[in-house]
Design brief:
Number of domains: 4
CATH class of the largest domain: Mainly Beta
Organism: Pseudosporangium ferrugineum
Protein name: LPXTG-motif cell wall-anchored protein
Strand content: 35-45%
Helix content: 10-25%
Keywords: Membrane, Signal, Transmembrane, Transmembrane helix
Oligomer: single chain
CATH architecture of the largest domain: Sandwich
Number of helices: 2
Strand order of the largest sheet: 14-11-10-13-16
């Protein structure tokens, strides 16, 4: 059957229109579905006072879209891994969303913003009109943490002693807020022994206070170069025990690292130390020899670290004595003459040994020589305040030895011979022997000077005649005078000093 021409033409036009509309739909529908959006949301982290902004980017097209030209304020978003951000396509069970996180601290920022473009690599389509903002004007502050009363807070610490110093660090535990500051002190002491013993005397201290602004303190003290104790305890300068005595106060469980009590709140090593290698005394001995043979020992205990009494023991032969010298003081011990080698001992000191030696300024013995035609007399005099002197006296081939006490004298007599001198030695004294020269006498002429003429071996003839009487009178006077001179001439005295 054939249609009439008008109807046929109308049908042809309608079919062409439908085909054109269908083709247009196929071409334009993908472009209309390329779309990306973004929305934001902010929450406040009350634990830290940080606002966390979450940005959700969406992709309505089945193919993945790469994010480009990403900009955020006031901070960058967190990025996991390397490479660009990609919004997954909405297909195959994927939701077509990419979530980015932005953290904003502080209260200055009033808003957060984001802007970006999306690129679909499958067809090169770009959507560059994506942006959003989130209001941050509401305050965001950490929640108020209740404070902890004194004695309830937790701490941790370090403690050590090295060389001549000690260091400790005490720190408040995280998350703890103190209602008031907590003082802590490190103190060192002189000690009588390397183990715990009393009395102890404060040497150095350092105190600090832990509070919410200063959550950690480091303390340092010097340690004495002798036996010591060091303590780390909860308390301030007013709580320091300056002298630890037998029945006095103790820090007890206030020491950090204790099992219980205030000190048990801090975790760490024991906050106390006892040790040392020598006593806190300075014993010293000064021996001085005396001229009388005694030895004076000056015992002292006045050094920089002398905090305890010292017992000095002095021994010499049968002599023995123990003397206690208080700190900062001195004592004197006299060892009798002739006691022998002296030994002084004390804790913290090597033994001191000493032998008496004659001082250089002691008075020396004197020697007096008297001789006449019959005898030679040697007298040794020893002064007061000196040791007994032993004198070895030699005249000719004869030798005598005498000991002369202090303030005394001893006399030795020899028969006169041809020797013209005597020698006196002092074996116990550091002096040269004395050579004592005798007075020269004319003993063959009665101790005088000669016969008045002629040969001395030939006596003069007596004088006779008228003048004999006058001569005899003069001779009588001369005889008397000569007798006096003879007595004087027979006893000549010379003194020598050793």
């Amino acid at each position: 059957m054939k249609l009439n021409s008008p109807l046929r033409r109308a049908a042809t036009v309608l079919a062409g229109a439908l085909i054109g509309l269908g083709g247009a739909a196929v071409v334009t529908s993908p472009a209309a579905a390329h779309d990306s959006t973004v929305r934001g949301e902010a929450i406040c982290d009350t634990a830290t006072g940080t606002r966390i902004v979450t940005w959700t980017l969406t992709n309505d097209w089945p193919a993945d879209a790469t994010v480009t030209d990403l900009k955020t304020t006031p901070t960058d978003v967190e990025k996991a891994g390397e490479g660009n951000f990609v919004i997954p396509g909405k297909t195959g069970g994927r939701n077509g969303e990419l979530v980015l996180t932005q953290k904003v601290t502080g209260g200055d920022a009033k808003e957060a913003t984001i802007s970006f473009a999306s690129l679909w690599s499958t067809d090169g389509f770009t959507d560059g009109k994506n942006s959003a903002r989130v209001d941050l004007s509401k305050p965001c502050a950490p929640a108020e943490t209740p404070c902890v009363e004194a004695g309830q807070a937790g701490f941790h610490h370090t403690f050590g002693v090295t060389g001549n110093g000690s260091t400790a660090t005490v720190t408040l535990n995280d998350g703890v807020k103190l209602c008031e500051g907590e003082p802590v002190t490190l103190v060192s002491y002189f000690a009588p022994k390397p183990q715990f013993a009393v009395p102890q005397y404060e040497y150095d201290h350092d105190s600090g206070t832990i509070d919410n602004e200063h959550r950690s303190v480091t303390l340092n003290v010097d340690v004495p170069d002798c036996n010591t104790q060091v303590d780390l305890f909860f308390g301030g300068e007013d709580d320091i025990i300056s002298e630890i005595t037998e029945n006095g106060s103790r820090y007890g469980d206030k020491k950090l690292g204790s099992k219980n009590g205030l000190g048990g709140r801090s975790k760490g090593p024991q906050g106390w130390y006892n040790g040392g290698t020598k006593g806190c005394q300075t014993p010293a001995v000064e021996p001085l020899s005396q001229c009388d043979g005694t030895v004076t020992l000056n015992l002292s205990n006045n050094g920089k670290i002398s905090k305890y009494a010292i017992d000095f023991t002095v021994k010499a032969g049968e002599f023995s004595k123990t003397v206690t010298v208080a700190p900062g003081k001195g004592e004197t011990v006299t060892v009798p003459a002739g006691a022998g080698t002296i030994t002084v001992s004390a804790e913290g000191m090597e033994n001191v040994t000493y032998d008496w030696a004659a001082p250089e300024d002691c008075a020396l013995p004197t020697v007096i020589v008297e001789n006449d035609c019959d005898t030679v007399a040697i007298t040794v005099e020893n002064p007061e305040g000196v040791t007994p002197a032993t004198a070895k006296i030699t005249y000719g081939d004869k030798t005598e030895t005498v000991t002369v006490a202090a303030g005394k004298s001893e006399k030795v007599t020899f028969k006169a011979g041809k020797a013209t001198y005597a020698t006196v030695e002092f074996p116990g004294l550091d002096v040269e022997p004395i050579k004592a020269t005798l007075e020269k006498l004319d003993c063959e002429n009665g101790g005088g000077g000669g016969t008045g003429g002629g040969d001395k071996d030939e006596p003069s003839l007596p004088v006779t005649g008228p003048v004999a009487g006058g001569i005899a009178g003069g001779a009588a006077l001369l005889l008397i005078a000569g007798g006096v001179l003879f007595v004087i001439a027979r006893r000549r005295k010379i003194t020598f000093t050793a």
